Predict the structure.
Amino acid sequence: MNMNLNTNEILTTTEYDMFRKISNRKITENPKLEEELLSEGQRQPILVNEKMEVIDGQHRLYYLRKHRKPVRYIIDPTANFKTVISMNTSAVNWALQDYVYS
């Protein structure tokens, strides 16, 4: 497989088996995310490293695969498990005021 490691490029595939899980994290059902992906499409690409390990987006990949939809992804050769931890702990949830003024 010829992969372009340009981290600024969003790539698309239906080759679901090329992606690998980075951990044994359980995929929990998320009907809201599933419905959003089906009605709105994939807004945010999944993030993978050069080994095609999913750094961010395991649930999106799960539902896109389930419904045989194309997967948009970005390869970041520097991403690893620490990246996952950083992304998940540094994110700030929106407050009601954020929704009102958006």
Observations:
- The mean pLDDT is 84.
- DSSP finds four helices and five strands in the chain.
- Residues 43 and 87 are 17 Å apart (CA to CA).
